[in-house]
Structures are given as structure tokens and as C-alpha cells.
Amino acid sequence: MVNLRGKHISLRALEPKDLDFLYELENDASIWEVSGTLKPYSKKVLQLYLDNAHRDIYEVKQLRLCICNGEDDCVGLIDLFDFDPKNRRAGVGLVISNPEDRNKGWGAEALSILGDYAFSILDLHQLYANILEDNHTSIHLFEKLGFEKVGLKREWVRTNQGFKNEIMYQKINPNVS
């Protein structure tokens, strides 16, 4: 894979050593609202996922990368999903696992690196993100990195507090027509 390294973080493929991190993150009910998760994952299921994580984005329509700090510790995940090579677009999502590691610029750097990769290597025309209306931190992050609000899906996501609106953000590759 291309060197996906920034000033403070790097992005790398999932490795077998990431099983415990993935297990903790995927079973953190506090982020299920934004991830669409409905139930816990077993280590066995996550091991099967890791065993197939090497498959090509053109085959599985997804790319999940670890966000690593300077010590190569995995602090979060960033995904391209719903990869559509015909229309040259993909969704993007990210999570920094530990709340104490948030707001350090790692998410912004990861999103910037992934955006550059998606636009220059995968030759995508656009990236999009779906963000809950009350997720002000993510809204600020995506807007800061040039994503524009293009739509509102009313009462789109059912949560324990009721239905929430979801905002769709989009970033068009400035170097592709």
C-alpha cells in the first residue's frame, strides 16, 4: 500500500494484532449510534473479518484502515465504504476510540490523508459523509476539511432518544472533472 503517513499519525492496513482493539471498539455501545451497530461482535466473527481484510477495495467495496499515533498504537479507524468505481465515489467515516485521544488533530490528519489517497490513487470524483445533526465535533471536522452540507435526511436514524436527523456532506475532487 502507498505510504499513508502524516506529521503525527499514519494509516495502515488491519493486522492480526488488532483483534483486541477491534473487539473493544466494535463492542463499545457508546458509538453504536453512529456506526449502525445493533449487537456485540464475538472475537471469532472479528477474527474472520481480519482474515479477509486483505481483500481488494474493488471486490469488497470497503477499505478500513487503522489510525496509528507516533508509537504505532492504533487509536482509531477510518473507512471508505460503499465504494462505487463506476461513479467514482465512496462514503467515509472515522472514529477515534478513546475520548481522551479526541480533539488532538488525529481525525483531521487521518481524513486529510485518506482524502488525498482517495482522490489521487483511487481517482475518485467525490467523497461523502453522513453525520448526525447533533454530532457537532464531526460536523466541524468535515467542514474544516472542505466537505459541504448537501442535504438533510429528516428523522433518519432511530436512537434510544428517538429519531435523529442526519446531514449529508460531500467533497468533490478539485482535480477531476
Produce the secondary structure layout.
Elements: E1 10-13, H1 19-26, H2 32-35, H3 43-51, H4 57-60, E2 63-68, E3 74-84, E4 89-96, H5 106-120, E5 126-132, H6 136-144, E6 148-159, E7 162-172
Parallel strand pairs: 4-5
Antiparallel strand pairs: 1-2, 2-3, 3-4, 5-7, 6-7
Helix pairs in contact: 1-3
Task: Report what the structure shows.
The protein is an alpha+beta fold and 177 residues long. It has a domain at 10-124: Aminopeptidase, CATH 3.40.630.30. Helices cover 28% and strands 33% of the residues. The chain has a seven-stranded mixed sheet with strand order 1-2-3-4-5-7-6. Helix 5 (106-120) links the parallel strand 4 (89-96) and strand 5. Helix 1 packs across helix 3. The protein is globular. The model has no long low-confidence stretch (mean pLDDT 90).
